[in-house]
Amino acid sequence: MTGNSGRPRTPRFSTWTTRRWLRVGVAASLTVLVLLGAVGAWVLGQTRSISDELVNEKSPALSVSFRLESALLNQETGIRGYGLTGAPEFLQPYKQGLTEQQTHTTRLRELLHGNPARLQDLVAVEEKVQVWQDRIARPIAAALPGVPSPLATERAEEGKKAFDAFRTALSSQQEHLRTDRAQAVEDLSDTMNLRNWVFTTIALVIAALTVLIFEGLRRGINRPLEQLGADARTIAAGTFDHPIASTGPADLRRLSAEIDFMRRRLVRELAFTEEARMRLDAQAADLQRSNAELEQFAYVASHDLQEPLRKVSSFTQLLQRRYGGQLDRRADQYIDYAVDGANRMQTLINDLLDFSRVGRVHHELHSIELETVLKRTVSSLSVSIEETGAKITHDPLPPLIADPTQMGMLWQNLIGNAIKFHRPGKTPKIHIAAEQDGGLWRFAVTDNGIGIAPEYAEKVFVIFQRLHTKDTYNGSGIGLAMCKKIVEFHGGTISIDPDYSDGARITFTLADQPPQTTDPSTVPEAVRAGTEPST
């Protein structure tokens, strides 16, 4: 690269980014490693080639040559014995030797393939053996058994010379094979020494590259990042006016500058954030106080409605008793409407009072036996159980840390609903299942009643929501809403099982140790104490 004057200009390393430094370093390292790897691969290839030649050719060839010599000796021994005695059993070693000779000769030719000199040695051996076979072995073997062969005596001297000739050729072949194997062993040793030196050099170069890379990373990346981290920790500790130093490659310097810009912006935003936090704290305190006052208002309002409602109910009932049948039919109907409305209003107010007391008045958490609470609930529902013939079964129930009054209200609403909403003409069957799931207990109340449609699975837990008219089923529509409030107060959840179609199945969970959700200091004294203001 040249400037306007045509003179070369050196690159400005200060503008190199971390990525560029890494690319250059990785490229250089890979180039060196590839070269070293190529040399190492060549050395390994040579070592493997020589080792394979020694193991698969040289050594087996020498071993097969010895076995060939043994086979030829067996032939000579068998022929000599048969020629002198005529005993047929001496032909067995000879025949076996012929078979082994053929096998070993074929194997030697395979092993010496590509080695013309050693193949020539093998041909020389075969020629000498052929002469001995033609002149001595085959004629004697063809003689009649039982008597000594005259040829054995006549050609004894010729046979000895022929046998010595092929043994000499065989010894020469074995000597050449020994020399070849020794040379291969020496070549293998030299190659292995070269391999060791090459891989030692590779290891040293890799170690040097590793040191260079780690030192480069430490100086170019780790040290600037450590400085950046130290500055960030100083700022995080509260010294927001501390500047961030820009060091290292160009991209790290840009990062430091951007973080310093962010620091300056955070300093500007800090004052505003602190002011906003203080306003939010004040609003949260006001909201908490307002919620407590609303709870107190709901409690007091429902309580204060009791007295005028009792008067309305008393006077309407008095009108009904005193003037019932004396007025016209429509007047009697109006009086009945007024009495019924007053009674239902009384029920609604009582249920609303019970609902508002959950978590405030009944707040005595201690260890209870759910079995005992369930027995008391079943006893209190004995009239409706006897009237309907309901059958109630349950799994073993665990002990829990809970409010006993609220647990009684929970069982009473769930079992009471199961009895109330039974199928006409069918005996109600209710089963309570319980199993532990981690730190929670999972319960299921299953009945064979009219059930709850899936589209109403959420609606039924809303206060004053009814799925049936008051003429079909009595009640205020607050029971399941109260169950939900009780379960959530004890750290659990409640829902309808939409997959159960043979009735209704309500599942809920309860924690072993319910959370503390209410701070008594934020609740007005009259509500905390559960006292009823005077009317």
As a percent range, the share of strand residues is 5-15%
Ranges with pLDDT <50 over ≥5 residues? Answer: 1-11, 517-535
Indicate the structural class: alpha+beta
Distance between the termini: 99 Å
Individual helix count? 13
Radius of gyration: 54 Å
Task: For the structure shown, list the relevant keywords.
535 residues, disordered N terminus, 13 helices, elongated, five-stranded mixed beta sheet, single chain, alpha+beta, two-stranded antiparallel ribbon
List the helices and strands and how they pair.
Elements: H1 18-85, H2 91-111, H3 116-142, H4 150-154, H5 156-236, H6 250-304, H7 306-323, H8 329-357, E1 366-369, H9 370-380, H10 382-388, E2 391-394, E3 399-402, H11 404-420, E4 429-437, E5 440-447, H12 479-489, E6 494-496, E7 505-511, H13 525-529
Parallel strand pairs: 2-4
Antiparallel strand pairs: 1-3, 4-5, 5-7, 6-7
What does this entry look like structurally?
The chain has 535 residues and is an alpha+beta fold. The chain contains 13 helices and seven strands. Helix content is 66%, strand content 7%. Mean pLDDT is 78; it is low at 1-11 and 517-535.
Short description:
The protein has 535 residues and is of the alpha+beta class.
